[in-house]
Amino acid sequence: MQVDAVYENALVWTGTGLTSALAVLHGRVVALGEDALGVSARTRVDLGGGFVVPGFHDAHNHMAWFGMALDDVPLGGCRSVEEVYDAVAARAATLPAGSWVVGSGYDQNKLAGGHPDRHGLDRAAPGMLVRLKHTSGHMTVVNSAVLDQLDLAHVPVGGDVVHAEGSPTGLLREQAQLLLRPLTYPTPVEQVVRGLDRASERYLSEGITSVQEAGIGGGLVGETPAELAAYQLARDRGVLRVRSTVMVAASVLHDLPDGAGFGLDLGLRTGLGDEWLRVGPMKLFADGSLVGRTCAMHEPFDGEPFDGEPDNVGYFQVPEDEIARTIRKAHDAGWQIATHAIGDRAITVVLDAYEAALAASPRADHRHRIEHCAVLQPAELTRLASLGLIASPQGRFVNELGDGMRAALGEARVPWCYRLRSVLDAGCVLPASSDRPVVDGAPLLALADMVRRRTASGAPFAPEEALTPEQALRAYTYGSAYATFAERDLGTLEPGKLADFAVLSGSPLDESALDDLSVLATAVGGELRYQA
User: Fold this and answer.
1) How far is the C-alpha of 379 from the C-alpha of 348, rounded, in Å?
2) Helix (H) or strand (E) run with residue 3 in it
3) Which pLDDT tens digit goes with each residue over 233-252?
4) How far, in Å, CA of 188 to CA of 85, rounded?
5) What is the pTM of this model?
6) In the predicted model, is pLDDT for residue 306 greater than 80?
7) Which region holds residue 34: left if phi is over 0, alpha if psi is between -120 and 50, else beta?
8) Pairing of strands 73-74, 100-106
9) Do 139 and 171 touch, CB atoms closer than 8 A?
C-alpha cells in the first residue's frame, strides 16, 4: 500500500499514548509508529522533532462574531472608562459624520468608573452612532443618538434597560439588546463569510482544527436568519478552514406540520451534514452573565449593590416554564440540546427540565449539555452526572474573568465556580472551550489556566478544580469531540480517524513547559494548512 503522506521525526500523543509517526491516506490516519514508518508514501514530512497532538476542538465558540469583531474598536485593554471614551473618539475621528462606531470587549469589572454611559459616548463621538459590546456579549452600551431610535416602551422579556436618576444610561442588558435589531440586523451574508474566513485563519495558527459554533440564526448570538448559508458559502469558497458544527438558536425552531415534531423547515435536526459542516444541538439561553451580574442565582450577588439593586439575584432570559417546554419538545424531536445556564438557580431549573424530559421520553446517549454550567452546587453536580449530561465550562474564564467572578460570588461560592476536576471525578466526559471572543481563545493559554487556576491578579481560584496537563489536553481534544458526537472521527489520532493534528514546539504534558509552547504547524485531513 502507498499512502499519501508519512509524518515523521516527531513525538506523537495519540490521545491514548505516545508514538513516533503517523501515515495518512485520503485524509485519515492509517498507521502509527513503526507501522507508519514502514509504508511507502508519496510524501514524507519531517516534523523537526515537534510534539504532535490531535487538533484542538473548541466545544463552544462564536467564530463569526469573533471574525467580524476584528474590525471593532478593541476595548479589552482599557483600564478606565476614560480610556474607553478616548478609544471611541480616536475611531470616530477616522469616520464620516453619522457613521457607526462599534467597539467590543470592555469589562466594567476592570474599568475605573464602571460601565461607559451614553453621556460619555456623546462627548467622545458627537454626530455618530455608538455601540459598545460588553466582553460577555450579554450587555451593550449605546449613545443617545442610538437610544433615541429605540422603542424603549416595549423591552423584551428577559432583559432590561438600566436607568439612573430616572433616565436610561445607555446600558442594555440581555434580551433588551434585541431593541437594536431594527438598526443592526441582519448582518449581510458576505460580511459573515468574511468573518469566518478571518477567524479560520487565526484558529489554524493556534492549532484549532474543529469548532462548535454556539448559536446561529437567531437569539442574542445569531447574525442573520441565513447564517447557515453563510457557512455553506464559506465552505464552497474554501475559506471555512476548520470543521464546524453549528448550534441552532431555539428561537428559530417551531412546530412542524402533520405532527412531524419540533425543528427547522423540512424537519432538519441534529446530525445533518458531513465531516466539514454539521447541524449540531439546539442552543437555548436560560439566563445571563456572571461578571455582568445578570445570571439567575439562588442568593444575591456579593459586594456593593449593582446599579442600585441590593437584592439582585439576576433573572432568566425566558420564563421558567418556557425553558422546560422547549427542552421537552426539542428532546422529543430528536435534537441534542445545549442550554446556556450560568447561575446556580438557572442550573437547577435546567436540570429539572432535562430530568422531566428524560423521564417522560428516555433516550440513550442523548448528550444533552449545559453550556458554561458556571455556579454548580455539589448536589447539582451529582444530579448532572446521574442524568448523563455534559457540562461545558471554559477554563480560560478563571484567568481573564476570575477576579470579577469572585467579586460577584463572594468567597463562599467560589469553590462551585467553573468546576473541572470534580466534573471528571463525577464520571462525566469533560469538554474544553473558550466562548471566544468573550476571552482569548488560544488553546495553549487555556491549557495552562486549566492546570493552574489563577486569576489575572495571580490569586488562586478554587485550585482543587485544577486538572493535570494530560486531563486538560484530553478535554481540548477527545472531550470536546465527544460533546457533539464527533469522537467517532476526531479527538484522537487512531487508524480510521480524520488526520487532524497540531505540531507544538514542546510537550504540553510537561507543566513547566506550558508557558513556552507555540504552534509550529496545523494539519486538517492530513494536509498542512498552517506552518509558522
Assistant:
1) 10
2) strand 2-13
3) 999 999 999 999 999 999 99
4) 28
5) 0.97
6) no
7) alpha
8) parallel
9) yes
